[in-house]
Amino acid sequence: MNFSKRIIAMDQSPIRKLTPYAERAKEHGKKIYHLNIGQPDILTPKSFMNAIKNTNAEILKYTSSQGIPELIDAFINFYKEYNFNFERDEILVTNGASEGLFFSAIAIADDGDEILVPEPFYTNYQGFLSATGIKTVPVPTSASTGFRLPNKETFSSYITSKTKAILLSNPSNPTGIVYTLEEMQLIADIAKENDLFILADEVYRDFVYDNIEFHSFMNMKEIEDKVILIDSLSKRFSACGCRIGAIITKNKELIAHILKLCQLRLCCPMLEQIGAVELLKTPKSYFKEVLCEYEQRRNVLYNELQKIPNIVFHKPEGAFYVIVKLPIENAEDFAIWLLNDFDINSETVMLAPAKGFYSTENSGMDEVRIAYILNEDDLKKSMYILKEGLTKYLSIKNR
Asked: How many CB atoms are closer than 10 A to CB 34?
């Protein structure tokens, strides 16, 4: 039987690709510290579960394709705390940020069109775009410069007649950088001059450290009709399985078009939307405690990584990820070896090989992405395992 060229061309997720190796390691009695996936271990606010338990609905009905009115209003009130003022017809509830990105890309670009993405980027971006026939055009950044954006002339050189948008996450998954106001103005100027949309993935907005000021494209009034804000409850509320996100834009014509896609998938789950209403009412004190916890985890990771010789990395400014360049040729081979052939007291670590966060051929081969979502003690243990494992791996390869 033949399969579509589209599906054959798609790669497996580098975040989940090594799962079979991890499962086999567990079957052999190994404990694995999962550094490969951004699954927070912070407890989800109880208000979510309580809202679902307390609903008196007797039938799980189809809801509005846009999202239930109560959730739309909850989003509106939530964003006022960030000085964003939205109306009901500027918000669409989606099945996570993933569906939001997928639907937005379909609405603004055709088969063969291009979207620019600073590289390395969240691996699923390329999956979303390739599934729709849209070409991902990487704008390279490097570990040596802290993954900062190139200058305007260099960035603009990647624009062609087929370019429709610029897509970026801020704070960044996978690099952990927070874009400066100057960098954002650079993107805004390029979008305005070339009539491009900006797909602004801000799902990590609340995870910014060292008192760095976060800036949103939504605060840039001169381009507000070009900005498509993609958001999610997954990380902010440690509710990844909730699968509730949103598309927000001042471009009401675009919202009307994307609504057609929302109607095709009928609606988001009713109970999850009911729970999400209460999540968005979570007191600010919750975020302060969570931010403090993750900043401390970031500090622990940074201190432990400094003990590992001959690696290159930069202190993450936001989100909960860091890209680490290792003194090896093939990070995927190393990650598999850690699962198959190495442990300390029956414990090992699982990493995400970084080549999957690049579309430029042969890039990221010696890099891994680490998610610092473990508690402090487990982070210290996992970094020790990584250090000792790297030493042994290099001794084997250098024989």
From this structure: 18
In the chain, the N- to C-terminal Cα span, in Å, equals 46
pLDDT digits (tens, 9 = 90+) for 322-377: 999 999 999 999 999 999 999 999 999 999 999 999 999 999 999 999 999 999 99
Residue 356 to residue 368: CA distance in whole angstroms: 10
Residues in contact with 35: Cβ distance below 8 Å, sequence separation at least 6, in sequence order = 349, 350, 351, 352, 370, 371, 372, 374, 382
The CATH homologous superfamily to which domain 5-43+285-397 belongs is: Aspartate Aminotransferase, domain 1 (3.90.1150.10)
Would the pTM count as exceeding 0.90?
yes
Report the C-alpha gap between 33 and 370 in whole angstroms: 11
Residue pair 100/230 in contact (Cβ under 8 Å)? The answer is: yes
CATH number of 46-279: 3.40.640.10
Summarised one tens digit per residue, pLDDT across range 13-59 is 766 779 999 999 999 999 999 999 888 889 999 999 999 999 999 99
Rounded to the nearest 5 degrees, what angle is found at the Cα of 76, between the Cα atoms of 320 and 84? 70
Predicted confidence at residue 15, as pLDDT, reads 65
Beta-carbon contacts of 94 under 8 Å, excluding residues fewer than 6 positions away, are 100, 103, 244, 245, 246, 247, 262, 268
